[in-house]
UniProtKB/TrEMBL annotation:
This is cytochrome-c oxidase. Keywords: Cell membrane, Membrane, Transmembrane, Transmembrane helix. Belongs to the cytochrome c oxidase subunit 3 family. Its main location: membrane. Residues 1-191 form the Heme-copper oxidase subunit III family profile domain. Pfam families: COX3. Its EC number is 7.1.1.9. PROSITE patterns: COX3. It comes from the Bacteria. SUPFAM superfamilies: Cytochrome c oxidase subunit III-like.
C-alpha cells in the first residue's frame, strides 16, 4: 500500500511540474502583466493561510504517531492534547485543512472583486489554475481523512491495518503541503 501511494504521488509530482512549467512560461511571455497583477495579492493573508496548512502537517504527523502506538482515541481529557489519539489529531488536521480551503475561497472572492478572474488575463489564468488544482488536492486529502476516521470508528479493534491507512494518508497530506510551499514561494514571494 505504501509503495503504491508513493508511485501515485510521483505521478502527481509530474502533474504539478507541468503546472509550474505553465506558470513560468506564461510569466516569461508577459512579465509586465505579472508585475501588475501580482500587486493584487494579499501576502499577509496568504502567509497566515499557508501557516495553517503547514501546521496541519504537524498535527497530521502527531496523528500518525498515535496510530503507530495503536492509540485511536485520547487517554485523558480533551484539553490534554499530549494524550490525544489518532482521531483527535486527524480531526484537528481536517479542520485546519478546511480553514485553508475557506481562506482560498475568501482570497478568490477578494481577487475577483478587484477584477482578477481566470479569464481576465494570462496571470489570472495561471494563478487560478495552479492554486485551484492544489485546492482540489487539499479537498481530496480532506475526503481521505474522512475515510480514515470512518475506518477508525468502524474498526472493532484498531490494528496495523488502520495504522497503515493513517501513514499512507499522511504521505498524501505532506505531499500537498510541500507542493503548496513551493507554489506559495513562486506565486507570492518571487516578484
Amino acid at each position: 500500500m505504501s509503495v503504491g501511494t508513493i508511485v501515485w504521488l510521483a505521478s502527481e509530482l509530474m502533474f504539478f511540474a507541468g503546472l509550474f512549467a505553465m506558470y513560468f512560461t506564461v510569466r516569461a511571455a508577459v512579465p509586465e502583466e505579472f508585475a501588475l497583477q501580482a500587486d493584487k495579492l494579499n501576502l499577509q493573508f496568504a502567509f497566515a493561510n499557508t501557516t495553517i496548512l503547514v501546521l496541519s502537517s504537524v498535527t497530521c504527523q502527531m496523528g500518525v504517531w498515535a496510530a503507530e502506538r495503536l492509540q485511536p482515541v485520547r487517554s485523558g481529557s480533551l484539553l490534554q492534547f499530549w494524550r490525544w489519539g489518532m482521531n483527535e489529531w486527524i480531526t484537528l488536521t481536517y479542520v485546519m485543512g478546511a480553514v485553508f480551503i475557506g481562506g482560498q475561497i475568501f482570497e478568490y472572492a477578494e481577487l475577483v472583486e478587484h477584477g482578477l478572474t481566470i479569464s481576465s488575463s494570462p496571470y489570472g489564468s495561471v494563478f487560478y489554475l495552479t492554486t485551484g488544482f492544489h485546492g482540489l488536492h487539499v479537498v481530496g486529502g480532506l475526503i481521505a481523512f474522512l475515510f480514515l476516521l470512518g475506518r477508525s470508528f468502524a474498526a472493532k479493534r484498531f490494528t496495523h491495518h488502520e495504522e497503515t491507512t493513517a501513514i499512507v494518508t499522511s504521505y498524501y497530506w505532506h505531499f500537498v503541503d510541500v507542493v503548496w510551499i513551493a507554489l506559495f514561494a513562486v506565486i507570492y514571494l518571487v516578484r
